[in-house]
Design a protein that fits this description.
Layout lengths: L2 H27 L3 H12 L4 H26 L4 H19 L8 E6 L2 E6 L1 H19 L3 H11 L2 H30 L8 H20 L4 H4 L19 H9 L2 H30 L5 H28 L5 H20 L5 E8 L5 H12 L7 E6 L5 E7 L3 H13 L1 H4 L7 H10 L4 E5 L3 E5 L4 H15 L7 E5 L4 E6 L1 H12 L5 H13 L4 E9 L4 H30 L4 H13 L2 H15 L1 H20 L9 H6 L1
Antiparallel strand pairs: 1-2, 3-5, 3-10, 4-5, 6-7, 7-9, 8-9
Helix pairs in contact: 1-6, 1-7, 1-8, 2-7, 2-11, 3-5, 3-6, 3-22, 3-23, 4-5, 4-6, 4-8, 6-22, 7-12, 7-21, 11-12, 11-21, 11-22, 11-23, 11-24, 12-13, 12-21, 13-21, 13-24, 14-20, 17-18, 21-22, 23-24
Length: about 650
């Protein structure tokens, strides 16, 4: 190329890089919005924790399969049109996902004399899962055409640096999703559904932008094609499908990095998909703040990705595998550091005398405390001799739970008199059942759904409140209401007592929890053994460790695609990236449902430790490919 042609090519090259980065970032906006919507969807009854895990797994596996299959087509078709179609499909299903209704309770169906009863949340979960499955396939139409187009636009000697810059589109897309959804859920106070609607509207504009501004090849942009030693100058593939398969599946290095990619993505998705959830449930950090911490994770990833590309080109002379070894080592270091940070909160240990298996006992304890802390961690272990021991961990201390009490008192109608804001209703519900007691006003008036005569209900209510020891001389007036319901009105003295109790500060979380367990499970069923209140590590330290993990893990995530493209050459770059992609997204069998299962059985602590361990496994696999050459062009020419 002449000097004039070189200058024109450089301008067109950077224009392509930035335009394709913008287009691909919006794929992430319509994918990673789910992680911010999850807590609200759980609360509203749209999905369950296992459903989230299952959806993440199915979505990841199908996305990887889509990348693999679409890699075959992307090597042959126009990348600009291919991307536009995929993004347009993602827009439609993201809009539809926001309309999935929340459903609670149970549904009974009868057919031909057979009756089935199932949780209503299954219906909404299946509907959302259907939309997100289609989304997975559409998402897989984004990266393969980009991988092909980049090898036509960037010389192998510059590919690590410039493609690393391009790979920051992953992080910018995730930051857009997390930041936008944090704004929608926090300052704007909108519901989780807007986390699907607003990104879809923005992505629709990006699809139009992609169609008009992304150029498939230098030829389409009106500039000369790249001249690469050992490669053709054509912008279309010149080899057969059999030869393309040989370049990919006959290359040992591609197999090693593909398997290593499985572990890279476990770590990456472990933080990205579950971040806001485990920061809230494990660290007690509100969802909006947790979203900001994951944004910091992604911003650090931008710098780390570019740095990894620069190190690969300048230090390791294009041998990206060597950079990956060090990245995974330090990822494990930061992940282990974050795991071992003090969570704060209160840890309690109880001897249990309850029927059932360990899992059933743990569920009974969780059910007894769900109004106090729906995310309390409960682990039931066998003890020497006989019986079991329950280890409980709540993010609350006396200080933080009292803050929760004040917040709940301000929104009493919304919380329906939860235990922390109304001790009277707590004991009434403990006696008659949670769904049988409803607060009617702040003046100690309640509606009770209970069978029996007016006198019998009055005796039962007095007995329950006497047991609560709120007022030994309690006066109770029971009035009949419609449909076997009664209105219970307490006198002024009891009202004053209730007010005092409701405003009383909790000085000892463990004593409070013990009282709840004794009331709901029986005094003889639980025996306190020990308790410890700890202070949480500074949030700035937790954020720095998360940023360190983000800085390191996105280097391998970007470099694997670069190594695969260089090893397979531009003739089979999309297929090679499809193969490494399907291996990476197969990891959602672990980072999706696998993490959900580990969390439910062992808690978030061991779960984060497992994620950190996977980083070290990935490092070992990269070590096996340490001696790999920078590209496969010479090998292809010699074949």
């Amino acid at each position: 190329m002449t000097d004039t042609q070189v200058q024109a090519f450089r301008r067109a090259q950077w224009r392509f890089i930035f335009c394709s980065m913008i287009a691909y970032a919006f794929f992430y906006l319509t994918r990673k919005n789910l992680s911010m919507a999850q807590p609200g969807m759980l609360e509203e009854g749209v999905i369950s924790i296992y459903t989230i895990g299952g959806i993440l797994t199915v979505h990841g596996v199908l996305y990887g399969l889509s990348r693999f299959v679409n890699g075959f087509w992307a090597d042959r078709l126009n990348g600009r049109i291919f991307m536009t179609i995929g993004l347009s499909i993602a827009v439609v299903v993201s809009l539809l996902a926001g309309f999935v209704p929340g459903m609670r309770g149970f549904v009974t169906c009868s057919l031909a004399g057979h009756t089935w009863t199932f949780n209503a949340v299954c219906i909404s979960s299946l509907l959302f899962g259907l939309f997100w499955t289609v989304n997975a396939w559409a998402q897989g139409m984004g990266f393969p055409p980009c991988a092909k187009m980049l090898t036509h636009w960037i010389h192998p000697k510059e590919l690590a640096t410039k493609m690393s810059i391009w790979n920051t589109s992953h992080s910018f897309g995730a930051v857009m999703a997390l930041g936008l959804c944090s704004l929608l859920l926090g300052p704007l106070g909108l519901g989780w559904r807007w986390c699907f609607w607003v990104p879809a509207a923005l992505a629709a504009g990006a699809a139009v932008f992609c169609f008009f501004f992304v150029k498939d090849s230098p030829t389409e942009a009106g500039v000369p094609e790249l001249e690469i030693e050992g490669a053709t100058t054509s912008h279309t593939s010149t080899i057969t499908t059999a030869e393309r398969r040989r370049l990919v599946f006959g290359n040992k290095v591609i197999w090693l990095i593909a398997i290593a990619n499985f572990f890279v993505y476990i770590v990456r998705f472990g933080f990205l998909d579950w971040g806001p959830t485990f920061l809230w449930q494990f660290k007690g950090i509100p969802v909006a703040k947790g979203g900001l911490m994951i944004i910091a994770f992604e911003l650090a990833a931008v710098v780390g990705t570019i740095f990894a590309g620069w190190v690969t080109d300048k230090v390791f002379k294009g041998r990206g595998v060597r950079t990956c070894v060090f990245c995974m080592l330090f990822t494990g270091f930061f992940a282990f550091g974050f795991w071992n940070l003090s969570n704060g909160g209160t840890e309690m240990k109880y001897e249990l005398n309850l029927p059932g298996t360990s899992a059933e006992q743990a569920q009974k304890v969780k059910d007894a405390l769900k109004d106090f802390d729906a995310n309390i961690s409960v682990q039931v272990l066998p003890q020497e001799g006989s019986g079991t021991v329950a280890v409980l961990h709540t993010v609350y201390t006396a200080e933080t739970v009292n803050s929760k009490m004040k917040k709940d008192k301000k929104s009493d109608g919304k919380n329906n008199g939860e235990v922390v804001s109304d001790p009277v209703i707590e004991f009434l519900r403990g006696k008659f059942g949670k769904d049988s007691v409803k607060p009617l006003s702040q003046q100690m008036k309640y509606e009770i759904n209970q069978s029996g005569t007016q006198a019998e209900v009055e005796v039962a209510v007095k007995a329950a409140l006497k047991e609560a020891k709120l007022d030994e001389n309690l006066s109770v007036q029971v009035l009949p209401a419609e449909e076997a319901r009664f209105h219970v009105v307490l006198d002024a003295k009891a009202e004053s007592k209730q007010k005092d109790e409701g405003e009383k500060q909790i000085e000892d979380v463990s004593a409070y929890v013990t009282k709840l367990l004794s009331t709901r499970l029986g005094a003889d069923s639980v025996k306190p053994v020990s308790h410890e209140e700890t202070e949480a590590a500074p949030i700035w330290l937790a954020t720095l460790l998360l940023m360190g993990a983000g800085f390191c893990i996105y280097g391998p995530q970007a470099l694997i695609g670069i190594v695969a493209a260089n090893q397979a050459t531009k003739e089979a770059a999309a297929m090679a990236n499809g193969f490494t992609g399907i291996m990476g997204y197969a990891s959602t069998t672990v980072s999706g449902i696998g993490i959900a299962v580990i969390k439910e059985h062992f808690g978030w602590g061991p779960t984060l430790g497992t994620i950190a361990g996977f980083a070290i496994v990935g490092m070992v696999l990269f070590l096996f490919a340490w001696n790999a050459q920078a590209t496969g062009y010479k090998k292809k020419a010699d074949a």
